[in-house]
Amino acid sequence: MKNYIKHQEWQIIEEGFDPHLNKISESIFSIGNGRMGQRANFEETYTGETLQGNYVAGVYYPDKTRVGWWKNGYPEYFAKVLNATNWIGIRVAVNGEELDLNTGKVLEFSRVLDMQLGTLTRKFIVELRSGNVLGVEAVRFCSLVDDEAGAICYSITPHNFEGQISIESSLDGDVKNQDSNYDEKFWTEISKTEQNSFALLTMETKKTAFWVSSGIHTEIHQNGAPLGLKPKFVSKEKYVAQQFTVDVKKGETTAIYKYAVNLSSENYTKNKMEAEAVATLQKIVAKGFDRMRQEQAQAWAGKWQNGDVVIEGDVAAQQAIRFNIFQLHQTYTGEDARLNIGPKGFTGEKYGGSTYWDTEAYCLPFYLATAPQQVAENLLIYRYKQLDKAIENAEKLGFKNGAALYPMVTMNGEECHNEWEITFEEIHRNGAIAFAIFNYSRYTGDQGYLAKYGLEVLIGIARFWAQRVNWSIEKERYVMLGVTGPNEYENNVNNNWYTSTIATWCLKYTIEAIELVKGMDPVRLTELFAKTNFKEQEETGHWQEIIDQMFYPVDEKLGIFLQQDGYLDKEQVLVKDLPASDRPLNQKWSWDRILRSCFIKQADVLQGIYFFEEDYDLETIRRNYDFYEPRTVHESSLSPCVHAIIAAKLGDLDRAYEFYLRTSRLDLDDYNNDTEDGLHITSMAGTWLSVVEGFGGMRIKEGALHLHPILPQKWTSYAFKIGFRQAVVTVKVSDKQVKLSNESNVNLEIHVFGLAHQLQANSNLELNT
Amino acid sequence: MKNYIKHQEWQIIEEGFDPHLNKISESIFSIGNGRMGQRANFEETYTGETLQGNYVAGVYYPDKTRVGWWKNGYPEYFAKVLNATNWIGIRVAVNGEELDLNTGKVLEFSRVLDMQLGTLTRKFIVELRSGNVLGVEAVRFCSLVDDEAGAICYSITPHNFEGQISIESSLDGDVKNQDSNYDEKFWTEISKTEQNSFALLTMETKKTAFWVSSGIHTEIHQNGAPLGLKPKFVSKEKYVAQQFTVDVKKGETTAIYKYAVNLSSENYTKNKMEAEAVATLQKIVAKGFDRMRQEQAQAWAGKWQNGDVVIEGDVAAQQAIRFNIFQLHQTYTGEDARLNIGPKGFTGEKYGGSTYWDTEAYCLPFYLATAPQQVAENLLIYRYKQLDKAIENAEKLGFKNGAALYPMVTMNGEECHNEWEITFEEIHRNGAIAFAIFNYSRYTGDQGYLAKYGLEVLIGIARFWAQRVNWSIEKERYVMLGVTGPNEYENNVNNNWYTSTIATWCLKYTIEAIELVKGMDPVRLTELFAKTNFKEQEETGHWQEIIDQMFYPVDEKLGIFLQQDGYLDKEQVLVKDLPASDRPLNQKWSWDRILRSCFIKQADVLQGIYFFEEDYDLETIRRNYDFYEPRTVHESSLSPCVHAIIAAKLGDLDRAYEFYLRTSRLDLDDYNNDTEDGLHITSMAGTWLSVVEGFGGMRIKEGALHLHPILPQKWTSYAFKIGFRQAVVTVKVSDKQVKLSNESNVNLEIHVFGLAHQLQANSNLELNT
């Protein structure tokens, strides 16, 4: 855990330069626009510790997996989010001496991520070895409006010298992934061109043959006016640059304006890409830096207008929730159904792949409530498009008849993780994908999706579960053997309660969905049954048998659901009794010891209770929470938010607040000592959930919006805005009052503390509590 | 499965050349002498499919492991048996045209491994593209007498031409391991020298810094007489050679005699190695090829004299058992306690490491009965020497107070496998290491070992088990969670019956051993307790508590021991009902499906019954055998022998014979389709066990030798010889008779079918059956 980020409501601020924190800050200060993004690397040369990262959405590499002993069904590759052409490079030499914060003496330094404006600003004063002192201010952003573009204004002011500065503004395609399994580089060069004032570089990924065409334009201004300098074009392998030499005087500022574009072959015909890059670059150069920056601020204002969460009385909490929302918007805009939300977004390489069950379990509710319906639908369509691959994936493992197993990690629908205990066993993800369809339908009230896309996915998933269980002659029940639940500190367990529960839920929901579509659109149903070769009587009959006779482990004495068979055989120790020096377990204990222990990485039984809350009475929820919470180490970023929501429901406000802080400031305070690898993007949606579903107690029941707001002691008030069907409502919770503002033109029924209220269009309602 | 090896009692014969079988034959026709060994690669250039393999005992490389996601406690490296300098190379060009069986037309071809003489002979006639036809006969061996040396006689006879042959006899250190994890080469060059008629090359392994100094001397003879040609010395990176050019005539034979030595820095000071290589080479050159070959035949005659198994009436069975015994002797001679028996010996790279639990569980009984007692003792001392490393290994996993966990795979005592489900979980190996101490003591009657070395190992192992179990509040018993039994088609199971059984057996045996040493050598005991900081009362008290309250899974209804908790939850299918196309499962099924199935890779419960047979009545053994045998797929080479022994005990002669054939001809007939990777050396000891303990029914009970011989229907008779304590006895079993010949000078009590007989020194006893 660290504590060096200044608390401020709208800004993330680092003051002073500590090279040991640099990789953490590179993650935290990351910028992006859903189409491209990057870590907060320096523009100028930096020879210290850094993790270079520039990413272009959808561009990946199928890196050969590393496994000890290959076994049938193992994925061939582990897809990597690719570090792509570095477009920010501005090499600076002062009278021949290279500017490098690793060799110079840093006198002042600050980094500011402004979440209102959507810009990253870095300022420093450095004394070079020669004794020359200069100040630099670098402002950078990835444009939300021109989402293939970014711009930099890099200003240099000599403090105590005059002389010559040489500048090399580059596109560097000779990059590598730090997590390359076999130290390979993944890019080859296609072309590099000088075209008028532009330098262009097109690179291709090996194997996947994605092209990324990048272009830059660089202008030098002095004292606010352009110098009109022509750049010298420089090129070497996988590298182009524009060189300038300028005379500088003490106290006078030289500003380098750099405009850059990155186009992906996912969106253009390859042979037209260079021309398109030129056109895009022309467009932004014509706009100019200031207008781009203005448009950026406007676009961000729009996002905040729709989705801000305001917390009064607790700056750390306020900053944190905004940071989480900001990073989510930087990662995914929902405009392209081919894209998804990588666990690290555009902020690091770790975890590879773009899509985990995180998307369905944690991110979908955030986008349902804060974005146009199309965004959530695109997330579902992403999986629909990959149904064939999910069926192939199940076939590779021996399943048949259209059974679908969605991958644990994927880029294109194929499984690309490489541990059997995850890929083969963490099959509960299949349930989350079905649950997302339910959740979408419940939230939007739109059953059309079910008929058009959803049911086909559900049938594949239901078929998988029906084949995955087997009849136990011992238990005289259907059992589910050899699984890994959400708690990845267990592997290959039998009858994981969560997995078995979500499996039969899927079967039930698919039967319901069939009935629903039957009533709604029987022609479509017939068509779908033909397409999937579905034998209704036979298959649903078998499903019903499984639903009726499934085994779920419970402990009658304790009155709890058992995480899995034999969980109570483990030595029962509580987290509070663990020495601090043993934490986090995953860094201190051997894997063996973790596996055998009772400690839980992240919500498992409680994840099921969170999903299916309505099926359990409050006492059952409390007993399970009271049993499992003290055994949970929360060593997954996805854990605290679920606990926060359940704690809030149970009125355990102190724990709920503690969990909220932990999830919301996870990266800002580097709780798990791993922020340097990148941010925990998907769990950021969980932070939002812990406010809205946790403190706000928001639920959708029978088509209506319900709230049970509670206020953490430390806060004066909090407010969040949600879109629900046609309505938009802001909920502000303060000590004695819940204020509801309907900002839309439709009336809305809203239940607060179980009482129904009619909230007229464009009106407010104040309820005393 | 293949069937191309000719059946012959003393020879392994391949006739005709099929390039697709070449890698299989390279394994089968491997030669070695315990100190060095090699695959049956060709001397001349071969551009077809081949797996080059020359190995020097004890020389390994710690190759960086390949794992997807690193976790604490994972081994850093996977030790590789190293492919070392190739000393057999004899490049031949006929009038400038390279001799290569891949490009020439092979008119005749045979390979013969003569197990009586210890030589590999290859003959072929080839037509080159030029139309030139020549015959070649190559005889090669690794000398048992000069165990750092090998020799080749390579004779060439032109059939239809005359002209010039150029010959390049080489030492090639530029070799690589095919299973290198990161395509690295593991050797660097130290020196290469020409010294009189010798060419010398010294190579060093990276990281481990082993040196191997090799030297060759090459002589050319024509028509039986030396030509006295001086070689031309050729050298390039990691390579030296001796070149000759000779005129040849149709029908006249040119013979190339090549003498080679390989010395390891394990046995010499590095700076003296080249001189020692020269001296060794001088010694064998002085002997000459014919005398070396003669000595080789004599040495092998000695080995057969002591350890032959003679089967009459079944050539395939006879050939097979001799092949197994022959390969065991080629792999391990027992002279050096630093060496052990790698699963592939000197015949391939797969499995890496030199030592698995195979040594204790399968090989030790073979050496106990067929070799001087020192050989078995050396195998035990190997582990004693690695006790510190085993304690370190356990510490890495969180164990303390001198608990020892021996590695699953090792070269130097450190764990070097790289799958958690094996390294952390297949802890039953610790039991086999304790059992070997018991087995040695039981067989030899020598308790001195226990006091001197054995007890210290037992205390470490017992401490491990005592810490590895935990108290289950659910079962009110001690349980053993998260293990993998011998059946590797299960991972991370709870309460594996075999593991729990051998664990408590270890505790009991250690308590017994303490009492024994207390009586025998109390001073040593005090010393040992001080050294190990052993608190007798406290520790043995706790052990006794575990012994008394251990949980073992059983099914009362079926009257069987359960392989593990929940085994009967699995879908119960029998192997006979599996489609042939699904076999072998490990090549046809996904790992997931295998894990969830009831199918058993190798004896698991039955392994325990084999070890602790005396603890169970015949009906219990029969019920367990009848239950588990039909579920066992025998996809480990270590499986059929145990089943053969139990089947024989239960009088199931047909199955016993079937298992025997399967284990004994596993490699000759390439049963598991993997002989090309190398031979299954350690399971070859199991073949011997299935004859002697299976058909012969040999057991040691209360210090006496017991036999229960039965004769497979297909056999006329079989005979084996065993050394038991001071006596040597040959047992010949025929249809109506068991003939016992005491070939030693001591009297022997021997029990046949439960009846005691006194077998006088140097006398025979014939018992009618």
TrEMBL record, chains A, B:
Drop me one GO molecular function for this one: hydrolase activity
Looking at the keywords, is Methyltransferase present?
Answer: no
Quote the InterPro entries the UniProt record gives. 6-hairpin_glycosidase_sf, 6hp_glycosidase-like_sf, Gal_mutarotase_sf_dom, GH65_N, Glyco_hydro_65_C, Glyco_hydro_65_M, Glyco_hydro_65_N, Malt_Pase/Glycosyl_Hdrlase
Q: Where is the Glycoside hydrolase family 65 C-terminal domain?
A: 698-758
Identify the species of origin.
Answer: Pedobacter albus
Every copy of the Glycoside hydrolase family 65 N-terminal domain together lies at 13-265
Q: Name one Pfam family in it.
A: Glyco_hydro_65N
**Name of the protein in its database record:** Glycoside hydrolase family 65 protein
